[in-house]
TrEMBL record:
Entry annotated with the keyword Repeat: yes
Key words of the record: Repeat, Signal
Residues forming coiled coils: none
InterPro entries per UniProt: GNK2 (IPR002902), GNK2_sf (IPR038408)
Secretion signal span: 1-28
Database matches in PROSITE patterns: GNK2
All residue ranges annotated as the Gnk2-homologous domain in the record: 38-145, 150-249
Protein's name in the database: Gnk2-homologous domain-containing protein
Length: 307
């Protein structure tokens, strides 16, 4: 009896210690810090710039004000929709980066949209703006861009030079097509590998599978060309992203979509200043996998609620 009690007590103590250690790593990883602007495009259509006292400016203000809550709290990390109608219609899209926390994405969208240093201040009068941050993506325009992939690479990041890189390179070139295919076929347009080299692929949800795959393939081709020299890196367009890392001890944070479908509009415009959105009402869980070695190799997976 005593032996059994001691055995279970030691087992419980070990589990508690392991979970505490893992939780400390998750907390550290969730602290993304201030959002970093990585790319910005400010343009206008043939109609020209909007005026600060016009209907487009008012509708844009409404869109940017509601995006953080609509994207993060109500829609699990993505939003696309319209505000207003006619020539004053604003088409807007926002997406959370899957490897940052809910709080990070919320802060990012607030900073991008309604803060004093937001994109409206950076692009005064521009009717079409695409802003890429490390933690979120924001786009708006006076014409619809939904469902069309932007495949031009707008952000590139690479890590240190690898030694003995040829063997890892072949693994990466096999891993990328699989992960990009999984992302394109996923309702959440997202996939991530759980083995080294870790790879992540993510598209905006408005893209159909073939457009998502084409976007990711363009980025993956660039990664394959440059990967043999670097240990980690990322390629981004305004519609998709690919990230990889061969040395990480912390699994990137994926979303797990349980319900919903990508990019399905729910209603039509009802009148001036109205809001029409395409929502995916699925609930997400954040899954973090920590490879650890205690005599044997274990993958410790920690779940927490995203919404």
């Amino acid at each position: 009896m005593l032996t059994t009690f001691v055995y279970h007590a030691l087992g419980l103590f070990s589990c508690v210690c392991l979970l505490c250690f893992a939780s400390s790593l998750v907390s550290a990883a969730d602290a993304g810090g201030a959002p970093v602007l990585q790319a910005l495009e400010c343009t206008s259509t043939a109609a020209g710039n909007y005026t600060q006292d016009g209907a487009y400016a008012a509708n844009l203000g409404r869109l940017l004000a509601m995006l953080p809550n609509e994207t993060v709290s109500k829609n699990g990390g993505f939003f696309n929709g319209t505000v207003g109608n006619g020539t004053a219609t604003v088409y807007g899209l926002a997406m959370c980066a899957a490897d940052f926390s809910r709080a990070d994405c919320m802060d990012c969208l607030v900073a991008a949209g309604i803060s004093a240093g937001g994109v409206v201040k950076r692009c005064p009068g521009s009717t079409t703006v695409s802003a890429m941050f490390d933690q979120c993506l924001l786009r708006y325009s006076d014409s619809s861009f939904f469902g069309t992939a932007h495949i031009n690479i707008t952000y590139v990041s690479d890590g240190e030079i690898l030694t003995g890189r040829d063997s890892v390179s072949s693994v990466m070139k096999n891993a990328l097509p699989f992960v990009t295919s999984q992302a394109a076929s996923s309702p959440a347009r997202f996939a991530v590998s759980e083995t080294n080299p870790y790879t992540l692929a993510q598209c905006t949800w408005d893209l159909p599978p073939d457009a998502c795959k084409g976007c990711l393939d363009a980025l993956a081709a660039n990664v394959s060309a440059t990967f043999p020299a670097t240990a980690r890196g990322e390629r981004k367009s305004y519609s998709c992203r690919v990230r990889y890392d061969v040395n990480t001890s912390f699994m990137v944070v994926p979303f797990n979509l349980s319900t919903g479908s990508a990019g399905t509009p729910t209603s039509s415009l009802a009148g001036p200043g109205s809001v029409n959105s395409a929502k995916n009402n699925g609930q997400y869980d954040v899954l973090s996998c920590l490879p650890m070695t205690f005599g044997i190799r274990l993958n410790i997976c920690i779940f927490k609620n995203f919404i």
